[in-house]
């Protein structure tokens, strides 16, 4: 069950029209593609995706791109919007989202339920985690990533014994409990849980009937530590890339950096592993092309990702990520930027350190990213100086 | 003050039986004929405990149970049914007790007492 209702408020305005899992990433993907690809590559083919607000974009993407499983074989990727069958409100927390879908779980009655977040980017073989879960006879296994103890104030930290049984949970602690044999390291929850179904249902019901924020990390798991067998699973044992890559991309700055990693010579996130394909939906556009090579008017792209349907006509693109159907006109300079699908950049435009959301036309001669005092009057500008031009804006 | 019990039962004869027997035990009794009515009565009557049949027209007990738990987390609920098979349903685990219907109301009365005492202790 994939929790795909994240608002992603700190990603605004990229999340103005879409939930966080539907935010484009890496030129042709949506954030949820990574979790869905992990499932398929791990041979998990019965998948419910739970959505709530601003879900149209996500629904459309899954319908177009992920309609690839075989229903006669019992496989499915089903999108479930909030049903309001139990409670006439939005989901109150991650645990509430699963509880509200208890009738769905009832129909399937699996032995184990894997609960995932549609918000994160990583490559993980969930089978390895399930293997440990079964081996330990666990009730719940939580995937954990090692981080430096200095980062403890940003995360939920798990205290474990030498057998990796979780014996404590700290929410954003100043003084974190470190890993027994690694005093500089802490184990941080990735929001990836393997549950025995019966225990899951019982603990969700207990949580639903108590005063809590109905969140797995804050409420359900801390309450389980005493009475149930709860283990941590070290992500490195199932990390497909071998680089410990896991990103929440919760802020515009983190989002920008994670995208820019992809155009480095050896990215931490390898998209080229043919044994671990990342699937998505792509319209059948023609190949990218660069045109014009006159004096001072050369269509070029260097250190960049250029998608199908792009035309770079007499302008230059450096260290940038272009989604499908982006048009760059003559005498343009684009540097260190992310241009989403359908962006059209007029002649003589100069853009740097800017994210331009879908279908925006940048009129001739405009400069963005060169004078932040001006940019901030019209656009979102982050602390580190990234400018975001929202979808649909008319300039 | 008398404790208030909401009996949700579609069969009229049984409804009357529960009403009489529970009033004789010193409880105030509200009744509803189905889940939908139960949810209305829940808001109007503020019961201290709910006895919920499962197989009912309009809205069955399992559906009502989910909605009641979504609205009023604290009220103890006893599922009271002729069909023990519903114990397999995940939502039935949200009830505080599961009693199989019988002509002898002893077990039901014991459960009521137990749950109301537990509520007092909290």
Description of the molecule:
The complex is a heterodimer of chains A (395) and B (122). By secondary structure, chain A is α/β, with parallel strands linked by helices. Chain A folds into 2 domains: 2-261, Spore Coat Polysaccharide Biosynthesis Protein SpsA, Chain A; 289-389, Hexapeptide repeat proteins (UDP N-Acetylglucosamine Acyltransferase, domain 1). Helices cover 21% and strands 28% of the residues of chain A. Chain A has 9 helices and 31 strands. In chain A, strands 1, 4, 5, 6, 8, 9, 10, 11 and 12 form a 9-stranded mixed beta sheet that branches. Chain A has a 6-stranded mixed beta sheet with strand order 18-21-24-27-31-30. In chain A, a hairpin with a 3-residue loop joins strand 2 (24-25) and strand 3. The two termini of chain A are 41 Å apart. The mean pLDDT of chain A is 94. Chain B has a single domain (4-121), classed as 3-Layer(aba) Sandwich (Rossmann fold), CATH 3.40.50. Chain B has helices at residues 12-24, 35-45, 61-71, 106-121, and strands at residues 4-8, 28-32, 49-52, 77-81, 97-100. A 5-stranded parallel beta sheet of chain B has the order 2-1-3-4-5, with helices on both faces. In chain B, helix 2 runs parallel beside helix 3 (61-71). The longest helix of chain B is centred in the C-terminal third of the chain and has 16 residues, at 106-121. In chain B, 35% of the residues are buried. The A-B interface holds A 85-88, 100, 102-103, 105-106, 201-202, 205, 208-211 and B 63, 66-67, 69-71, 73-74, 89-91, 93-94.
């Amino acid at each position: 069950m994939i929790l795909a209702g994240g608002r992603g408020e700190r990603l605004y305005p990229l999340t103005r029209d879409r939930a966080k899992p539907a935010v484009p990433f890496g030129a042709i993907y949506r954030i949820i593609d990574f979790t869905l690809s992990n499932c398929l590559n791990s041979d998990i083919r019965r998948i419910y995706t739970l959505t709530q607000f601003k879900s149209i974009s996500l629904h459309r993407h899954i319908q177009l791109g992920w309609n690839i499983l075989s229903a006669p074989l019992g496989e499915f990727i089903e999108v479930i919007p909030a049903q309001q069958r139990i409670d006439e409100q939005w989901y109150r927390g991650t645990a509430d989202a699963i509880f509200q879908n208890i009738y769905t779980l009832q129909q399937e009655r699996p032995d184990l339920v894997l609960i995932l977040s549609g918000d994160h980017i990583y490559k993980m073989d969930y089978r390895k985690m399930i293997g440990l879960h079964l081996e330990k006879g666990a009730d719940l296994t939580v995937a954990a990533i090692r981080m430096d103890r200095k980062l403890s104030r940003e995360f939920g930290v798990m205290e474990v014994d030498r057998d990796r049984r979780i014996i404590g949970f700290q929410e954003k602690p100043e003084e974190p409990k470190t890993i027994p044999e690694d005093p500089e390291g802490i184990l941080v929850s990735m929001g990836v849980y393997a549950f025995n179904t019966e225990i899951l249902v019982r603990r969700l019901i207990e949580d639903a009937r108590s005063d809590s924020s109905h969140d797995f990390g804050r409420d359900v798991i801390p309450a389980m530590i005493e009475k149930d067998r709860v283990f941590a699973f070290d992500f490195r044992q199932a990390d497909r890339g071998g680089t410990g890559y896991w990103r929440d991309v919760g802020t515009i700055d983190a989002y920008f950096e994670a995208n820019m990693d992809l155009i480095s010579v050896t990215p931490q996130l390898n998209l080229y592993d043919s044994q671990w394909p990342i699937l998505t939906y792509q319209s059948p556009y023609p190949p990218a092309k660069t045109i014009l090579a006159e004096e001072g008017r050369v269509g070029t792209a260097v250190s960049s990702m250029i998608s199908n349907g792009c035309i770079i006509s007499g302008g230059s693109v450096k260290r940038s990520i272009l989604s499908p159907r982006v048009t760059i006109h003559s005498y343009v300079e684009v540097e260190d930027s992310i241009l989403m699908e359908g962006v059209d950049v007029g002649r003589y435009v100069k853009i740097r350190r800017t994210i331009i959301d879908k279908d925006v036309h940048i009129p001739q001669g405009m400069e963005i990213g060169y004078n932040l005092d001006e940019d901030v009057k019209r656009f979102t500008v982050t602390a580190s100086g990234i400018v975001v031009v929202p979808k649909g804006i008319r300039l | 003050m008398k404790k208030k019990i909401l009996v949700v039962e579609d069969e009229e004869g049984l409804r009357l039986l529960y009403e009489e027997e529970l009033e004789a035990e010193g409880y105030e009794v509200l009744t509803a004929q189905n889940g939908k009515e139960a949810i209305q009565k829940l808001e109007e009557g503020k019961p201290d405990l709910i006895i919920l049949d499962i197989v009912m027209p309009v809205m069955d007990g399992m559906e009502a149970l989910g909605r009641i738990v979504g609205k009023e987390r604290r009220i103890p609920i006893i599922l009271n049914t002729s069909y023990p098979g519903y114990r397999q349903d995940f939502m039935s685990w949200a009830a505080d007790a599961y009693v199989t219907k019988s002509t002898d109301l002893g077990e039901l009365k014991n459960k009521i007492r137990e749950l109301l005492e537990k509520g007092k202790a909290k």
